[in-house]
Design brief:
By secondary structure, the chain is mostly helical. It has helices at 13-38, 43-53, 59-70, 78-102, 113-120, 127-151, 157-184, 192-218, 223-250, 262-266, 271-279, 282-291, 299-311, 314-336, 340-354; strands at residues 106-107, 110-111.
Length: 358
């Protein structure tokens, strides 16, 4: 009897998210208990818990588990869920550190961790430095815990080395990408390819490709599946970051994400800004150069920047780049012949990663 695609049970992404969150909660509860036993400050674990509870799409964790399914994973999911949960602790580390380096005021609708710690210290002249230092250490612990969760995950002997090597490569890529981002801000801001290079290192591989390949490695994937994930991972990761850049500047039509000032005040080398500078006439280019990167940038000036990015076609071109990458991902999936449930889940995640919502 032939089973149609519609009869194949779907991968329930909502259930997967709850399962990943349960692994995280159990792990952090153990850390809280150990901290209490040893007299460590309880607010460290609480800060990580609160950060996770504040939101996030869990897209890396979901992709990891979907990658496992796509590679033929079946039966006990405990190992792949632990690897997936480890990725979310890595995200906590990366975002806390990113906010320190950018001095971002908020994250997920709450004060950024370093800002919250600074406020807790009062008006002492050392509060800014100490708040950043405290957040740095919380981020470091989140990274240590991410690796502990990974290293204590039961894996088949022939797969452990591959999983750990992929994870280490992801860490290295993100660090290099962050370095390029920090050191490149304010220089060559109209270089679209340089901006894309930062995206590939800092976001694209770590957000999409590596999580998929990690899940596949847990399942003992062959080269065919791995090549598929490489083929779709980078373009989808780029589209994900391009959408995030648009959200930061313009917000979303559904108002779930309000326009922000963070990237504009920082002068971040986004593809959106590079396109605007490259296409602007001398007057608008000079205005962009004068406004972008000002720490005291206000809403009126931000509105002027947004208008220039519209008039120059930068916003529209960024949308085209996202659409082209999304279409490429669908073509890769069309050729891949993945198990129907995994294929359906990947198409849904690709749409979610590139959609204009927060």
């Amino acid at each position: 009897m032939t089973v149609s695609v519609v009869d194949v049970p779907a991968i329930d992404l909502g259930t997967l998210r709850r399962q990943v969150d349960a692994v995280l909660e159990e792990f952090l509860a153990e850390k809280a208990g150990a901290a209490a036993d040893r007299g460590h400050p309880p607010e460290v674990v609480r800060t990580v818990r609160d950060f996770l509870a504040a939101g996030g799409k869990r897209i890396r964790a979901l992709l990891c588990v979907v990658g496992w399914h796509a590679a033929g994973g079946h039966g006990d999911t405990s190992s792949v869920l632990r690897v997936a949960a480890s990725l979310e602790l890595f995200v906590v580390f990366a975002l806390i550190h990113d906010d320190i380096m950018d001095d971002s005021p908020s994250r997920r609708g709450r004060p950024a961790v370093h800002r919250a710690m600074r406020a807790r210290l009062g008006r002492d002249e050392r509060a800014e430095r100490l708040g950043a230092g405290g957040a740095l250490l919380v981020g470091n612990l989140a990274l240590m815990w991410a690796q502990e969760l990974l290293h204590t995950t039961p894996l088949a002997a022939g797969r452990r080395g591959r999983v750990h090597a992929l994870y280490d490569a992801m860490l290295e890529e993100v660090m290099y990408g962050q370095y390029l981002d920090v050191m490149g801000t304010g220089r060559g801001a109209d270089d679209v390819e340089a901006a894309l290079r930062i995206v590939r290192h800092k976001t694209a591989t770590a957000t999409i490709e590596r999580p998929l390949r990690l899940g596949a490695a847990v399942a003992g994937a062959g080269e065919t599946v791995t090549d598929t994930f490489t083929g779709l991972g980078v373009p989808l990761g780029e589209a994900f970051q391009l959408r995030d850049d648009l959200l930061d500047v313009f917000g979303s039509p559904d108002h779930a994400c309000a326009p922000g000032l963070g990237d504009l005040r920082e002068g971040k080398r986004t593809v959106l800004l590079a396109l605007g500078l490259r296409s602007a006439d001398p007057v608008r280019r000079e205005r962009l150069c004068r406004l972008v990167g000002r720490a005291d940038l206000g809403e009126d000036e931000a509105a002027e920047i947004r208008d220039i990015l519209r008039v120059t076609g930068a916003r529209e071109e960024t949308e085209r780049m996202i659409a082209a990458r999304y279409d490429h991902v669908l073509r890769v999936l069309d050729r891949a012949g993945l198990p129907p449930a995994a294929d359906r889940a990947l198409r849904g995640l690709a749409a979610r990663a590139t959609r204009y919502t927060a």
